[in-house]
Each structure stands twice: as C-alpha cells, then as structure tokens.
Amino acid sequence: MSNPTASTVGSPDTGKPLSVQQHEQPAPKNQPEDLHRLNSILGHPLSGIPHEELMEMGASYALENGMEDLQDEFRKGALLAQSPEAFDTLPLLTDDDKYYLRREVTHKWSHPKDLYHMVVMCSMAAAVQGMDETVINGANLFFLKQFGIEHREWIAGLVNSAPYLSCFTVGCWLTHPLNQRFGRRNTIFITCFISFVTCLWQGFANTWPHMFVARFMLGFGIGPKSSTVPVYAAECSPPAIRGALVMMWQMWTAFGIMLGYIADVAFYNVQDPPHITGLNWRLMLASAMIIPLIVCFQVYFCPESPRYEMLKGRHKRAFDSLARLRWTKVQAARDLFYMHTLLKVEAELNKKSGHKLFEFFTIGRNRRAMIGSEIVMFMQQFCGVNVIAYYSSVIFRDSGFSVIDSLLASLGFGIINFLFAIPAVYTIDTFGRRFLLLTTFPLMGIFLLFTGFSFWIPDREARIGCVALGIYLFGIVYSPGEGPVPFTYSAEAYPLYIRDLGMSLATATTWGFNWLLSMTWLPLVRAFKPQGAFGYYAAWNAIGFVLVLLFLPETKGRTLEELDRVFEVPTRSHMKYGLAQVPWFFKRYIFRQDVPAPKILELEDIEYHQDAFRNGSKEMGEGNSV
Fold this sequence. Notes:
disordered C terminus, Growth Hormone, Chain: A, mainly alpha, single chain, globular
C-alpha cells in the first residue's frame, strides 16, 4: 500500500529527480522489464514532466471531458498532482488555494461534512460485519438444543459456519462483478440489504436446515461488503487520512462484534409468548438487521466513488463526487487528475501483463508476496480468535459460568477486543507488521494454553476466573497484532497490477479457514476436551511465529520501488536473517550485550520512510480496483 506522493526532489548524487532514478532501476529478476517499469511509474506517474506541459495536460483533460469551465482548476490540479507538497512555490495558486492546501497538512482532520457522513456510513457498514458474526454466540446457548443438534457437533458447526462457507465458495468472488456492474454504493446497498433480510430470516427459522440456508445466504452480504467498503473509503478519502480511514474498518468491525454481545445480553431474559419458542435467541439474531437497514438509508446520501465513475467514462460526475468531499475545486481537480493518470498507466500495464494467476507463481517477487499474504491471512484464523468470537458463551458455560454470566463474560471479551483495536491504528506503523506478529504470537499461544489448562482447576470459582482471564489476555494481544496486520499487509505486499486478484485470494483465504475453524471447534472439544482444543490452537501460534520469522518480510515504511526489492530478496536470505535474529535477541535483551542487529545485505541501502504508508494509502484507493 506504499505509494509516496510524486516528488521532483533531486538526488544529492545525480541531481535527477529521485522518482526518475527509481524508474531507471533494473527490473527484478524474472520480472518482465515492461511490467517493472510500469509498476514503478504507478508510484510516480507525473515525475519529470515540465510545468508548462503539465498545465496543458490538465486543461486538455478538462476540455475533453465536458469540464470547459474548470480548465484553470485542472491546470493548477495537474501541478499539484505532481508535487502536492510544493504548493507554496506555485505562483498560479491564489491565496485561498494555498490556505486550504496548507490546512490539509496543519488540520488534516478538517474536511467537509459530506466526507464525515461517508466515514460514518462506512463505519456502520463495518459494524454490520462484526454484529453479523457474533449474535450467533449467545443464540448457540438456546437454538442448538431447540433444534436437537446440541450433541451433534458437526451439524452445529455447519450451521454456525454457513456464512463463511458461503463467503469462501461464492460471496468473495462476487465482489468484482458486483462492483463492475453496479458500482461501490449500489454494492454496499445490495450487501447490506441482504444482511437485513437474512438476519430477519434467521429469527423465523424452525429447523436446523432452515437456519443453515438463512445463514448461508447471509454470506452473500458479508463477503462482497468486506472488500467493497474499505476500497470505497480509500477512493473517497484525502491522502493525508486515507490510511487511517481504511484501517478503521478493523476497529469498527470490533465495535460491531461488541454490539453482537450486547444484543445477546439484552435479549436473554425475554420470555416466550404463546405459540413462539425461543423468542430470546430469535431476537438476538434478528437484532443484527437494524444497522444494515440504517446503512441502506444512508448510502445514497454519499457520493459514488470517483474512481468508479471514471472507469465508466463519467469524468464530470467523478469531479462532482470529489468536489463534495474536498474544500475546494482545486483539491478535487488535483486528486481527479492524479487518478486519471494512474488509470491510464494501469490500462497499459494490463495490456503488457500475461495471465495474472500464472504470474503469482512464475515471478519470484509475486510469489513471495503471495506467501507472506497467505501466512498472515491463514494465521488470522488459526491463531484461534474466532473460536472465542463464535463460541465464547459455550466455552464460559462449560467452564462453570451460569448462562447469563456466560453472556456477560462474552460481552467483556467484546469490549476488550474493541478497546484494544483503537490503538492498533497507530501501533501498526510505529512498531511494524513483523515486530507486532513476532511479539504477539507467543503471547497468544501462552494465553490459550493458560485458558485450556484452567479447565483442570477443581475449584469452580478459581476455574471460571482463570478461564475468563486467559481469554481476556488473549483478546488484548490479538487486537494490535493479528487483528489489523493481515489486511494491511496483503494490500501493500502485491504489485499494483495483480493486487485486485491478490486481495480476492487473501479474502477468500481468511473466510475459507474461518469456515473450517467454526465448523470443527465443537467436534474438537468433544474429542480432545477444552484442554486439548485450546492447546491445538496454541501450537498453531507457535507455528505462526516460525512462519513469520522465516518467511515474512517487513513492509513498514517502504516505497513502491523498495517493496519490489524487499520481495525480490531470495527466501533463503530472509530465512538466514530470521534465524540470526533469535540469538541476537537473547544477547541484546536477555544478556544485555551491545551487539549489532542482523541485516539483510540486499536491503542495506534502504531506509525507513515514516510517512510512506500514510501517503501510500493512495495506492489502495487510486491504484487498485476491487
């Protein structure tokens, strides 16, 4: 996701624009020269173009697309698209233009109300996602027994996991056609309407096959929405806050997870009226229909994605969308012209590339990105978090809690998961993806072992206290690590020309293993008891630590060209680096020896860029389509 703003700052060695030098770097081994050149140009599409030529390009673009009255704005916008940080030096800009451009830096959270309405809508859509996942948690305490599948673990697991089976097999793969045919807003409306209908439908289910079908259909809402909403937010947001807004998906999904637990507690004491059995769990499941209905009413008050409008050839409508989300027309012209330039390069890149799926394996840079992405996506499920998210009420009940106390204890986990997701927006770029995973995987494994072994404690009060403590500690360390890292890492690891396919693969991976995990938990507990089941996922956390140590390159603060070099490093070199970190850690932090940190020789000349991720979040919104 690293795409720094274009710059013409000269290199101290050559005096050439830095981006031009980067374009001139040789292609990575096994990567076609044309693909490498075009992928690099996507990072700096306007570098090196003289100002007069840029202004003419901007005016021509406005004239060709029915915006004759905006030619002056697009002349200014073209200059700013090349060097957005140099606005103070451009004489063409008025004092008002410079005032609002300066405020982007000094007051980066000051934006028109339409932008914040879009943020609220996207946040609520994320909450829909979380609530869809967790209202089933409390309902499990009631409907499994009512449907006669409480002791038929495979059937119970199939019903619980139905939405994720749907996402894996169908839902995720509908994302691209839905977005291409209907656009971002319509796709959000369609998926939220599906969530509304299916959540209501679940409340009327009277047999387990009926419940399975309703929940399977829910996956048609969950899958495409999980990809569309973050991309819609990215395509509408200003560069300075785009990364933060996209990453808020994780935080507000955690908020929705908490709301699901709240609904479980709120409807627990509802009594059955005549002729209705299980009204409490029916209301739990149906309560998740409220937020998607609100999103459906909200979404059309937000502008359509400008990128989608441009892909359909509606450039004036794209400008009108951006103008609602920026303070000035010059800012909208800058972002639209930059987007237009990227789309042209992307079109050329797509012509040059071969079969994209084949190139996942034949090009080493792409293959290593895929391995890294698949590791974090696989481990997001097999770290064990969704075992707790979906079955915590059953786990707490089996440890000795009463039913209502089980629901309250699950709510506690939801609150912790949300609260510790908030600082993750900052920690992911402060500490880096790899560091966070290497730190939290061992802790998650330890806390899962602690939770499982607590079931051997004979005293009831001590047992339930230790089980709750273990689960809460697990939630605390999950939220800043395997919570935000997988989607962030996957979005930035792939080169732009295959990123849409890479993200589809990543999303399908996480939902596929989500289905497998939720399907097998109850049979796993029956076969190996809670001690063995929690121990199983603790072992996977140990495996995750090793996989990250040996195979996961760090991507924090890397520019587009540097990411090509990072993933071009041979796997054996990165394995040697990872193995060397283990004795260094003990010498440095245990024995307090002053020893140099190990390095990857191929990357010694690359420096960390503090703002690369933030600026580079443009790439997700403007350099990639779902």
